[in-house]
Amino acid sequence: IEEETSDKLKITFLDMGGHSEYYSCSTLFMKEKGIFMICFEATKFFQINPSILDNAYFQQIGTFLDHISEYCCTPIFILTATKMDMINKHRTSEEIQHWKKNLHSDAMDHISSIATRSASI
């Protein structure tokens, strides 16, 4: 954990490195407001079987959207695809753009669903 403070802003960087052991204690580091960068491996999203794609989304992104939204009232999410160089070797730019739009749409639908559930509580 690295912290930096100015007169108006306190920044804390926490890298869980994708380790599930840190998932359960991650709420100790969450605040009421925050910007959360969720990094995920892009190569896992170029699967042929759609059920694998759904599992990859929830495991690498959806779980964290749910978890963060449960403890942080006003989160800001940044989704960051890693290993894009591996994708660029095997896919056209049109395929990548299509994939990014679908992923963005899925994440927005998911966040809307979380907001709707939260509003009804």
What is the fold's blueprint, element by element?
Elements: E1 2-5, E2 10-13, H1 20-23, E3 33-41, H2 50-71, E4 74-82, H3 84-90, H4 93-119
Parallel strand pairs: 3-4
Antiparallel strand pairs: 1-2
Spatial extent as radius of gyration? 16 Å
Number of helices: 4
Query: End-to-end distance, in Å?
Result: 33 Å
Overall average residue pLDDT:
79
Low-confidence stretches: none
Outline: globular
**Number of distinct beta strands:** 4
Strand order of the largest sheet: 1-2
Structural class: alpha+beta
Strand content: 15-25%
Q: Characterize the largest beta sheet: strand count, sense, and whether it forms a barrel.
A: 2 strands, antiparallel
Q: What is the multimeric organization of the chains shown?
A: single chain
Order of helices and strands: EEHEHEHH
Helix content: 40-55%
